[in-house]
Design a protein that fits this description.
Layout lengths: L3 E18 L1 E9 L6 E11 L1 E8 L5 E7 L3 E15 L4 E3 L21 H8 L7 H15 L13 H7 L4 H14 L4 E8 L6 E2 L3 E8 L3 E5 L11 E7 L2 H4 L2 E6 L4 E11 L1
Antiparallel strand pairs: 1-6, 1-14, 2-5, 2-13, 3-6, 4-5, 7-11, 8-10, 8-12, 9-14, 10-11
Amino acid sequence: MNNKMKLKISHTTSYHYDKPVPYALQQLRLRPKSRPNQAVLAWDINIAGGRRQVSFEDEHANTVDLISFEPGVQDITVHCEGEVDVSDNAGVTGKHLGFVPLWLFERSTPLTVAGPNVRGLVSEFDKPKDTLEMLHELSAHILEKVPYSTDQTSSELTAEQVVEAGHGVCQDHAHVFIAAARSLGIPARYVSGYLMMDDRVSQDASHAWAEAHTPGLGWVGFDISNGISPDARYVRVATGLDYLGAAPVSGMRYGHGTENMLVKLQVEQQ
């Protein structure tokens, strides 16, 4: 594995509505930032069928673009493209930054409540005294008990529901890890971003993982689905208390039309 990579990313999300949409707004968290272990060399967002109203930083210091749809539109496309230099820092992203106090990341959200299922999972594994070692053990334990599977019934399952189902995707694994870490008194957060896969360039979705705050190191990433800490193949884009705070696209619209979404994503090494 190279300890440094230049990654080229092309990410297109297209929406088609069977009826004209009178009004809609979307928040895009699709702009990666330069950090100690990643340098954004170029990044552009182009919108067809809508326009950017304003860009701002949210409470987690994510860059957010607020876009509106053209009135009566039935097709809208958001295309992102750019290059990012990434260094392998063993998942360590460092000290806490942003506008939100660290203690807030110990608070549960509706998606990350540690109920009897999560607490039972936490009680099942031996906990080393070293926090970092314990978090690696927790990540491995979650993957063993909740194997990766794309056979999910909903994209908004809570951590409790995921453990009960006994399988999940990267988003689900992140929520279970976050709920478990917080139940142990460890601040944890959700990360959305991109992963360069070794066996393919084209993908059908962006990636997600979790970060926990450890003494001495600060924030450290854990990709539970792949059983590793993020390396030079990972581009961090947004963070939040859970998926809803770091979602690549979220929003609201008026109208009763049916929405069909198509994602085209390519991540490759330059």
